[in-house]
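User: New here, any thoughts?
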Amino acid sequence: MKSYHIAIVGATGAAGTELLRVLERRNFPVANLRALASARSAGKSVRFRGEPVPVEKLADRSFDKIDIAFFCTDGDVSKKYVPIACQAEAIAIDKSSVFRMQPHVPLVIPEINADDVRSHRGLIANPNCTTTVMLMALYPLHRIFHVRRVFAASYQAVSGSGTRGVEALTRQIKDAAADPESFEQSGSSAFAPRLRGGATADKSPSDTVFPHPIAFNLLPHVDSFLDSGYTKEEVKMQDEARKIMHSPALRVSATCVRVPVYRAHSVAVSAEFQRPLSVEQAREILSKAPGL
């Protein structure tokens, strides 16, 4: 079996750490692993297959002799370094939203449209996490009954905001536990001045991740609002679903909510199909669907 020289950009973040676990758990054929991150993480190490791997500062030459480069970073980093990785003849797999809707870039969920990978030009985009959760259950039904319209409500963990989101929830829970009486009297608003004021000498930058306190709270939007009244996250669910399922007429109305749990998003989906579909039929199809 061929093995690959792998680079992970953002190796110390939440997504990069999880990717390391997945590669190890699935026994992916890695010949060599290059862990890349920002200057503040350079010099640290990550563990892979029981061994420490030194973290290197991301640079223009980081992709020399790399076969596959995974980008577990925000859009600004991907926008700058994905073209550099491709120029170095690495295949870039990017989790950010920067390239997802570009016509020549395949947007792939392997259980749904793996064949789209064949058309890649050195770059493969990874869909939004909530889109993936929804389509894994929806697509097996769509193949037979052809979905026309979807109503979805997501309940998204703080891990979707990365390590800083997890740290923010932890810090706010500790603050509430340290002064429960104030919290009971004023609720999460007791922490709002801190968040609105941003980080100070005695407050972690993680407290500025969310526009309002997240501990013991629900935030009825994920990402910023657009002129349509939907958020960017909600629009992603429609646009990406259309591209992945090759269904340009698909209509999706989504409401995305941030919830105070650490990991695992949930999505409640109601769908309208072109053909009648019973609960028993749906259960039978989904019980055999890959990845569920």
